[in-house]
Amino acid sequence: MQLLYLLHSLTAEDEIRMKLKVSPQIAKLEVADGHAIGNHTWYHWYRHMNLSVAAREIESTATAIYQIMGVKTFLFRPPYGILNNGVADYAQKNNYAVLMWSDDSINYRRPPVSKTCQ
Length: 118
Prior knowledge:
The protein is mainly alpha-helical. It has a single domain, classed as TIM Barrel (Alpha-Beta Barrel), CATH 3.20.20. Helices cover 42% and strands 7% of the residues. Strands 1-2 form a two-stranded parallel ribbon. It has a two-stranded parallel sheet with strand order 3-4. It is globular and about 40 Å long.
C-alpha cells in the first residue's frame, strides 16, 4: 500500500494546506484510491517541541485529515526524520506508528531552480 503524506510537500506546506481547503475532493480521491494517509505535522518544524506544541502539531493535522478526508490515521513520519525533538515521542505515546523512509532522495543537495533555470 502506498503512503501519502498529503499535508507535507518539499516545496511549501502552506501550498498543500491551501489546496486541501480549496480542493478537498482531491484528498478524498486519494483515500478512495486506497492510499494510506499519514500525519507529518502541520508546520514541519525541526526544533525541539514541548508537550503542548508537539500535541498541537500532531492533533491539528489529525483534525484536518479527519475533517477533509474523513479518516483517522495512526501513521506518523517525523519531519526531517528527527526522532528526538519531542514530536515523535508524543506520536508514539499516542499510539501512532512512527515510520521512516528507506531511501533518501538527497533532493536537498540539488541546486535551487533559480540556479538551474536562468
